[in-house]
Amino acid sequence: MSSRKEPQHEVINFSIDGQPVQARPGWTILETARHYRIHIPTLCFHPAVIPWGGCRLCVVETKHGNRGQIIPSCLNPPNEELEVFTNSERVLNVRRWVLEMLLAECPASREIKELAAEYGVTSTRFPVTHPDEECLRCGLCVAVCHEVVGVQALTFGSRG
């Protein structure tokens, strides 16, 4: 008999909304949530491209010990013993604020209107400058063009 142990698959133990979950090294909080079928809304995330957190809709509240913060789940890996909350009042307030901004930026977008309605956002306090705008400016098409297709045919112009 060999004294050699089989390699253990490392996992990171933490919780999402009180449910114990395990993440593999390299996974983000969002990827772990999706693995466990826990819904976190996103606009700019796609597994085929490097996440960049542009839309900020995937925010979650995290607590580790006495420290808590709101972070984008698509960019952040979990830590051992981390507590993640996907629908706390702080998270919902941030998402509503983001949706108000998106309603001002792309008020003709059906996807934004549906998401806003889901979160109870019916209007925006921000000025609407282009009422027919549908583009979310999430950057997903730019990332796919560059990272998947391999060309830089798309880019943002005057985004700031």
> Would you give the CATH topology?
Ubiquitin-like (UB roll)
Number of domains: 1
Largest sheet: 5 strands, mixed
Per DSSP E runs of 2 or more residues, the count of β-strands stands at 5
Strand pairing plus helix content: what structural class?
Answer: alpha+beta
Which residue ranges are poorly predicted, with pLDDT under 50 across at least 5 consecutive positions?
Answer: none
Helix content: 25-40%
Q: Give the SSE order as H and E letters.
A: EEHEEEHHH
**CATH class category:** Alpha Beta
**What's the rounded overall pLDDT mean?**
89
Q: What would the principal axes of the Cα set say about the shape?
A: flat
Count of DSSP-assigned helices: 4
| Structural Rg | 19 Å
User: What order do the strands of the largest sheet run in, or round the barrel if closed?
Assistant: 2-1-5-3-4
Termini Cα gap: 65 Å
Characterize the structure shown:
Helix content is 27%, strand content 16%. The protein is an alpha+beta fold and 160 residues long. The model has no long low-confidence stretch (mean pLDDT 89).
Brief summary:
The protein is α+β, with helices and mostly antiparallel strands and 160 residues long.
Map the helices and strands:
Elements: E1 12-16, E2 19-23, H1 29-35, E3 59-64, E4 67-72, E5 83-85, H2 89-105, H3 110-118, H4 140-149
Parallel strand pairs: 1-5
Antiparallel strand pairs: 1-2, 3-4, 3-5
Helix pairs in contact: 2-3
What are its keywords?
single chain, 160 residues, alpha+beta, Ubiquitin-like (UB roll), five-stranded mixed β-sheet, 4 helices, 5 strands, flat
